[in-house]
Structure formats: structure tokens, C-alpha cells
Design a protein that fits this description.
Elements: H1 6-49, H2 52-57, H3 63-75, E1 84-89, E2 94-97, H4 110-116, E3 122-128, E4 134-143, E5 149-158, H5 160-210, H6 225-274, H7 279-311, E6 317-321, H8 323-340, E7 344-348, E8 357-359, H9 361-377, E9 384-392, E10 395-402, H10 432-442, E11 446-452, E12 456-464, H11 466-471, E13 478-482, E14 488-493
Parallel strand pairs: 7-9
Antiparallel strand pairs: 1-2, 1-5, 3-4, 4-5, 6-8, 6-14, 9-10, 10-12, 11-12, 13-14
């Protein structure tokens, strides 16, 4: 688990930094402990040496007096078991010691030499003596009443026991540090496993989804960020599954939509080619071929429009237009069809002039045709489709209401999505409303659908007037540039916030 990935980064970063911090803390504490212990011993020795002016120096004038007093001081020193006291002559030879043994005259005494040359009369030294034992020594020079050097008293303490205690403390600190690292490592491993495990499961699930298995799901164990990610993966799988189903339905629907006119065209073409038919049959066949060719061309153009929308290449040529004129023409196109299908198409014409808009004539006509085609397609014989338009607060609203089968509530939020078909029994490829909705958004307008199952559907097309756009430029959903002909071309769709 620690060879690569999150676990390895955690080991290098978090645990590595913690080890460095603990090492630095242990080193600092070890230095503090040693300094505290050594300073304490030094202060004790200095304190004992401070009694010498009272014990030895008072009234002394000669070396002999010092030698006698120093021997008496060392022989009667009360703390012989804690430290060794030496009487040293001014020449550097040891006169006597508190141990009672013969002194080693070859022993180096750097502290004594330092005391002789120090104005304060003190000398300090830590080192190893000839036996290899580590000691701390302080020498204090004793002077006569006239300031002459009479000799010195040297205090020596073994540091072996102190160093052992310091070593024990350092080892204890290291043990505590190791224990902390061990606990942090175990806790970190548990934490990393709790992260890496679900991530590996998520990765395996994502690979299955990438291979087309949209039924796979991730088990959510915890209600945290990982749990939220699991829910997102599951939602994504569900959405991809639904999109895949819609795509397959779309392909099947488009195949059927293309096959029907192609079959009619091929059948009548073969009939005409065979010859031996009357003029009436010939005219009827050519009429079918032309009508189905136009239908086929319309399907292909709709697919091309959808492709342009998906790739962001749809462009509009905007002009100042009268929206009612285009609506009139679209309604007129469906009048004969409504009569043939025994349906009523009512257009509530408003005598009031509506304000001009900035729009693409062909695209807006395409929207009206698409909505009217759907309204008639989903309305049963004997039903009614009503069309009206009015202006309100700088917006023109076109309302197309039918008395058809309506849209179930669970399908209503999705009817404008690509490939989506609420009713699989009615012809269509499921992209007409998606294209119409995009065209309206490119016109800075909207396409809203309100429907109740069994009660019919109402489509409201809303588009701002030119005056409204001029007064409120922020309403525009597109970036526009003027063309050489004075028209305006939409060159880019603005990104929504």
C-alpha cells in the first residue's frame, strides 16, 4: 500500500515531517537537560568555593599559613562523599586531598591555570582525567591580605553518574518519541486505508462504467466527502445509463424516421421505373417522392442543427422582424393538415401591433413549426390547438395550447433534454424541443412548457423586443457583431454564471 499513491505521499510528507520534528524536539530537550544538570553542578561547586574567603583568607599573610589552613580544610571537608577537594600550592602542586590518598601530581589541571590568569580568581574545566573518568573541576585562588597568591583550592566532581542519568532521560525521550511515531503510524495507516479502500473501489467502479456497465453502484459506508463522492459516482452512472438508453432510443427512432420516407421513395421510384402506369399514378408517385424527400431533408437538417448546437457552431443572422408575420405564416402552413386530421387549429389574432424584435427569421419559423407539429401530433382527432400572441413589459409571448394527451409529471422536467421522448408510440427523434429551446436561448428568450396528463399541453415562447434589449443589454445571451449588410450575426454564446 505504501509503494505509491496517497499512502506513500502521507508516509513521506506527514510521517517524515513528524519524525523530523520529534528528532528536533528530543535533541533540544536533551541539550536543555544536560545544560540544566551541568549548570546545577557548576553552581554547587561555585557556591562551595565562595566560602573560602571566610574560611581561609581572613588574616593570612604567608604561604605557610595557607598550607596549614588548606590541609585542615580538605581533611575536615564535610561533603567528601559528594566531591573531592584539593589544596593546591601556588606552584601547582597538590598539597592534600579530601580523599586521604596520595595525590597524583601528574594530573592536568586546566582550571587551576585558568584561575591564576583570571581576574575573578575562578577557573572552570570539564574533561577526562588520566583514569578516563569524566569530571568537572573548579579552582579558586586564595590571596593574602596584600593581594599575593598563596595557593588555590580545587573542587572536583565525577560526571559519570550525571551522564548516565542524562542518558536515561534521553533514552526515555526517544522511547516516548518512538511510541508517538508508532501510534501515529498505526492511526495514519487506519486513516489512509479508510481513504484508499473506498478510492480503489471508486476507481474499479469508474473503470466498469467506462466500459459501459452503467448498472454498477458503489456502496456508501460513511456520510462524509467520500460518501458524497460515492453518491456522485452512482448518480453519474444512473445519468449515463439513462443517456445511453435515450441515445439508443434516439438511434432507433431516427432509423425509423429515415426508413419510412426512404421506403416510400424507393417503392414509388421502382413503380415509376417499371413503366406501364397511367398519368394519374405517375403524378401521385412523384408527389409522394417529393413530399417524402422534403420530409427526409427536414430530418437531416434537424440532425445537423442538433450537431451544430452540440459543437457550439450554430449561428444566427439577426434582423429587425415582425414576429406576428412569421407566426401567421407558420399557422397557415398547418391549417390544411389540421383540417385533414380532423383537428381544429385556432389562431387568436391580435389587432394590436406588436413591437419589432431582433431575430433570425428561419430559426424562429423553425421553432413555431416544431411546436405546432408537436401540438397536432399529440392531439387526437376532434381536439383543438389554439395559438395566440401578446406583448407584456417589453417581451412578446407566443402561446400554443393543445387539448392533447398531455405530458406525465415525471417526464415534464426532461422533455427539453436531448434524445428524450416522453411518448415512444409517436413518431419523432426526441431532439426537436432541444433544438427549439436552444434557438430561443440564442434569441435571449425562453421556451416554457406546462402540461397535465390527459388535459393537454401549453407552450409559452418568450422573446424580448428590440427596445427591451437596447435598454437592457445584459439580457442578451449572445455576443453579436454587425455584418456588411447591416444585419447582426451571433458569433458566440455567452457562458452562464
Amino acid at each position: 500500500m505504501f509503494r505509491k499513491g496517497i499512502a506513500r505521499r502521507w508516509l513521506i510528507n506527514s510521517l517524515g515531517v513528524m519524525i523530523l520534528l520529534l528528532a528536533a524536539c528530543i535533541t533540544a530537550l536533551s541539550f536543555v537537560v544536560q545544560s540544566y544538570a551541568y549548570n546545577g553542578i557548576q553552581m554547587t561547586l561555585v557556591g562551595r568555593s565562595d566560602e573560602l574567603p571566610t574560611v581561609l583568607s581572613y588574616g593570612m599573610k604567608t604561604v605557610g599559613e595557607f598550607n596549614a589552613a588548606a590541609r585542615s580544610y580538605t581533611e575536615n571537608f564535610p561533603d567528601k562523599d559528594l566531591m573531592e577537594v584539593m589544596a593546591v600550592s601556588r606552584s601547582g602542586s597538590i598539597l592534600s586531598t579530601s580523599t586521604g590518598f596520595a595525590p597524583d601530581q601528574t594530573q592536568a589541571m586546566p582550571d587551576f591555570e585558568s584561575a591564576l590568569h583570571n581576574d575573578s580568581g575562578y577557573g572552570y574545566w570539564i574533561g577526562k582525567i588520566s583514569t578516563g573518568e569524566k569530571v568537572m573541576a573548579i579552582s579558586r585562588v586564595v590571596r593574602s591580605t596584600n593581594g599575593a597568591v598563596l595557593g588555590a583550592v580545587r573542587y572536583v566532581v565525577s560526571m559519570e553518574r550525571t551522564d548516565r542519568q542524562i542518558t536515561y532521560i534521553i533514552l526515555s525521550l526517544i522511547g516516548v518519541g518512538v511510541l508517538i511515531i508508532l501510534l501515529v503510524t498505526l492511526s495514519g495507516m487506519y486513516f489512509v486505508r479508510s481513504i484508499v479502500g473506498p478510492i480503489r473501489e471508486l476507481n474499479a467502479t469508474a473503470e466498469k462504467i467506462a466500459k459501459g456497465d452503467f448498472e454498477v453502484r458503489v456502496k456508501k459506508d460513511k456520510d462524509d466527502e467520500i460518501g458524497a463522492l460515492c453518491e456522485s459516482i452512482n448518480d453519474m452512472a444512473a445519468e449515463l445509463g439513462a443517456a445511453e438508453k435515450m441515445k439508443n432510443d434516439f438511434i432507433s427512432s431516427v432509423s425509423h424516421e429515415l426508413r419510412t420516407p426512404l421506403t416510400a421513395i424507393k417503392g414509388w421510384a421502382e413503380t415509376i421505373q417499371s413503366g406501364g402506369i397511367g398519368r394519374e399514378t405517375y403524378e401521385k408517385g412523384m408527389s409522394v417522392i417529393i413530399r417524402e424527400s422534403e420530409r427526409l431533408s427536414g430530418i437531416v437538417e434537424e440532425l445537423l442543427d442538433f450537431s451544430r448546437i452540440q459543437s457550439g457552431r450554430m449561428r444566427l443572422i439577426l434582423n429587425k422582424i415582425d414576429l406576428l408575420a412569421e407566426l401567421d405564416e407558420a399557422v397557415y402552413m398547418f391549417t390544411d393538415r389540421a383540417r385533414t386530421e380532423h383537428k381544429t387549429l385556432i389562431y387568436d389574432e391580435d389587432d394590436t401591433m406588436l413591437s419589432p424584435i431582433l431575430g433570425d427569421v428561419n430559426r424562429l419559423r423553425q421553432v413555431f413549426i416544431n411546436i405546432l407539429d408537436n401540438a397536432l401530433k399529440y392531439t387526437n382527432p376532434g381536439g383543438t390547438v389554439r395559438v395566440s400572441a401578446y406583448e407584456d413589459d417589453g417581451f412578446i409571448r407566443v402561446i400554443i395550447k393543445d387539448s392533447g394527451c398531455g405530458i406525465p409529471a415525471e417526464h415534464l422536467p426532461n422533455v427539453k433534454k436531448k434524445f428524450y421522448k416522453a411518448n415512444q408510440n409517436v413518431r419523432g427523434n426526441g431532439i426537436g424541443l432541444a433544438v427549439a429551446n436552444e434557438i430561443m436561448e440564442l434569441h435571449s428568450g425562453s421556451l416554457d412548457i406546462d402540461s397535465q396528463e390527459g388535459m393537454g399541453t401549453t407552450v409559452i415562447i418568450t422573446i424580448p423586443t428590440m427596445k427591451k434589449l437596447e435598454m437592457n443589454p445584459e439580457l442578451s445571451n449572445t455576443t453579436q457583431i454587425p455584418t456588411a449588410t447591416g444585419r447582426v450575426q451571433v458569433v458566440e454564446r455567452k457562458q452562464s454564471d
